[in-house]
Amino acid sequence: MSPRKNRRDAEDRRSVGGSWSGGLQNTEEGPDGAWVIRTIPPANATKPYRCPGCDQEIPPGVGHMVAWRADERSADDRRHWHRACWQARLRRAPRTQRSRGAPRY
Which portions of the sequence form the region Disordered (predicted)? Predict the structure, then answer.
């Protein structure tokens, strides 16, 4: 039995969307519009970011993804997401910010 192949070939990477700084970039269509998605590998994740999906910090050294609307050109509109949070974004309700002592109803 041969060992499982965990890495993609360079040919597979080109078919997904090309590489950028060791990560992959492609366009994704969804019910919320067209998005450009860029994968950031752990080696290139050098700064902490706040994930808009779970409102938790993405520490340096953790692979994640950056997403922005395909029609936007500004770097200010890019958001860094955990992969699982990005995939679950359409299933989540809008996040409500409450004060510490506020009731939950």
Answer: 1-34
